[in-house]
Q: What sequence folds into this?
């Protein structure tokens, strides 16, 4: 019984690490994309920062959406048994 609960904890930790990694990567990649787009498209520093913020928001939103879908799919698979 002790080993099965240990396996559950390890699975939860790996899922958390995977979701954190996905969120961090998407945040950084889309922030950099927003910075490059702002550098080439806008002259004002305010609009450049807005472009970076928009990119960061898109990255966080897409990571949250994908993690939520994966978690719901895993949750329904577990609850059907």
A:
């Amino acid at each position: 019984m002790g080993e099965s609960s240990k396996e559950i904890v390890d699975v939860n930790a790996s899922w958390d690490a995977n979701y954190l990694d996905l969120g961090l990567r998407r945040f950084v990649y889309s922030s950099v994309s927003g910075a490059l787009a702002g550098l080439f498209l806008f002259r004002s520093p305010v609009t450049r920062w807005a472009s970076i913020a928009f990119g960061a928001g898109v990255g966080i939103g897409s990571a949250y959406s994908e993690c939520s879908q994966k978690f719901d799919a895993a949750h329904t698979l577990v609850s059907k048994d």
Q: What stands out?
A: The chain has a mean pLDDT of 82.
